[in-house]
Amino acid sequence: MTVGNMESAELFDGGIKGRGLRATKEISTGEVVFAEPSYSAVVFDSFASQVCHSCFRHQAQLHRCGQCKFAHYCNRTCQTACWEEHKQECQAIRKLGTVPGDKVRLAARVMWRIHKDTGVASDSQLLSVEELEDHVADLPEDHLKRIDTDVHVFLQYWSCGRTKHSLDEIAHIFGIIKCNGFTLSDQRGLKAVGVGLFPNLCLVNHDCWPNCSVVLNHEQSHLTSCTERMRYNFYCPRRIELRALRKICEGEELTVSYVDFLDTSAERQRKLKEHFYFECTCEHCRQHIKDDLMTAAAADGPGGKPSADQVQEVTAFSQECLEKIERSLMDKDFQEVRMLCSKCLEKQKNLLADTHLHHLRVLSAAVEVLSYLRCFSEAAAYARRMVQGYTKLYHPNSAQLGIAVMRAGVTHLQAGMIEMAHELICKAYRILLVTHGPNHSVTRDLEAMRRQTEVELKLLKQDESACQVRSDAALKK
């Protein structure tokens, strides 16, 4: 599979859903359907000095551009690879004397790329960037005002360029970015550090229980020819991979999820309507599949089955607690978060099921803060409960489930619970082989941890056997 190869997918008219992509052949679980370099991409403002603007890797020591003083890179190789994208941005920042927000910077990069490639970067690109949906006509008044503000900032920034554009043309680009921008993660896949535009990926429609997932792969090993390496390393070292979560039949539509599945169908519908301007008609939304688990009361406890009033009361308490937890996390008051989580989990005991969303969200916050405070044994206990709930809700090959299981495995490793750590790490490895592939840095890290825990388990068993021999000998005496 090389970048831009679209032999496994074709464009088709999906009726009420609009354009979509479907499989042109049978695709196996974990297979890369297609890989695509970003048309344009930028690092988020908040990570501008922490993440390489070329490869989007999180690095401790970065070198900044000597001219604009804004862009940061791993090394000279990354800086050279990104220069084609950065040179006009660099000039604009120096002339303007300030750096606009990431949305304006991305819009400008898209415009510069359109001027260079007329909206089509390669023969494998199915539609030009200008043909992508912008949904500007569907935007509510407050969103239109935000775009209008961005357009005026863009005009000041773009004034450094020669070509002028109408307000409608610029608003069209901002609408495209709003509806089609794809969040980019760092090399560990744990932090969203930027946003990019991938024209072919934009054509893949949504399903809450999709047959594909998308991952940003920072590795370049798939580029085989020297010419191909030079071309894509020079213009864009970032690529996404669309991977099959299960076997996909020839002619079947390719789908991904635009939102996290860990919400009730009504809440997912609200988010999709607010951000992407459509109503989801997938089976999970139509039949409200797993909504009952996400809002379930606990099974019969010591006091019998909880009443509706008890469940309503603890749900309201949990919601209030989660809001306080979020504020305390932002304030970095981790002891307060620990106290709130403990209080809330005690209140939920025997009242909310292990799959209830409020219960899982409190567990997630508890694991995060306890790991930070190095209370690994306590964090591991909560992580096990969290993974049990996630496993009942998420798709078995969900990337979110894989990452959660991986983090639980690491927490158990830190707590010295080698056997459970090994079990969780192996489970995460099986999932991420499908969603991320064997060459992704996250999967390779997991493979290393899997081998490490295997060795430690063998040593542990050998030590236990030696102890047993000594014990038996002592008993005989």
UniProtKB/TrEMBL annotation:
Q: Please name the GO terms that the record assigns under molecular function.
A: histone H3K4 trimethyltransferase activity; zinc ion binding
Pfam families (UniProt xref) = SET, zf-MYND
Which intervals hold domain MYND-type? 52-90
Give the record's GO biological process terms.
Answer: methylation
E.C. numbers: 2.1.1.354
Q: Which InterPro entries match?
A: H3K4_H4K5_MeTrfase, SET_dom, SET_dom_sf, TPR-like_helical_dom_sf, Znf_MYND
Q: Which reaction does it catalyse?
A: L-lysyl(4)-[histone H3] + 3 S-adenosyl-L-methionine = N(6),N(6),N(6)-trimethyl-L-lysyl(4)-[histone H3] + 3 S-adenosyl-L-homocysteine + 3 H(+)
Q: Per its UniProt entry, which superkingdom is the organism in?
A: Eukaryota
Q: What Gene Ontology cellular component terms go with this record?
A: nucleus
Q: Which residues form the SET domain?
A: 7-259
Q: Which controlled-vocabulary keywords does the entry list?
A: Metal-binding, Methyltransferase, S-adenosyl-L-methionine, Transferase, Zinc, Zinc-finger
Protein name as annotated = [histone H3]-lysine(4) N-trimethyltransferase
